[in-house]
Amino acid sequence: MPGLFYSPDRVWQVVAYLRSLAQRETPKGDAAHGAALFASRGCAGCHRVAGQGGRSGPDLTQIGSSRSVRHLREAMTNPDADVRQRYWVVTARGEDGRPVNGFLMNEDTYTVQLFDDVGNLRSLSKPGLRDYAVAKKSKMPSFAKLPAAELDNLVAYLGSLRRPGGVR
Amino acid sequence: MLRCFVLLMAAAAALLAQVTSDRLLRADREPANWMTYSGGYNGWRYSTLDQINRGNAPQLKVKWVHQMPTTHMVETSPIVVDGIMYVTEPPSNVVALDAETGRQFWRYRCELPGRINVCCGQVNRGVAVLGNRVFVGTVDAHLVALDAKTGAVLWDVEVANYAHGYSVTVAPLVVKDKIILGIAGGEYGIRGWLDAYEPATGKRIWRFNTVPGPGEAGHDTWKGDAWKQGGGSTWVTGSYDAAQNLIIWGVGNPSPDWNGDVRPGDNLYKDSAIALDADTGKLKWHFQFVPHDVHDWDAVQVPVLVEAPWQGRERKLVYWAHRNGFFYVLDRETGKFLLGKPFATQTWAKGLDANGRPIRLPNIDPTPEGVTIFPGVQGATNWYSPSYNPLTKLLYLSTWENRSIYRKGDQEHTPGNRYIGSVPLIDLPDDPGHGAIRALNPATGERVWEYKLHTKPWAGVLTTAGKVLFGGSDEGTYFAVDAETGKELWRQYCGGIIRANGVTYQSKGKQVVAIAAGNSIFTFALP
Question: Domain tally for chain B?
Answer without folding.
Answer: 1
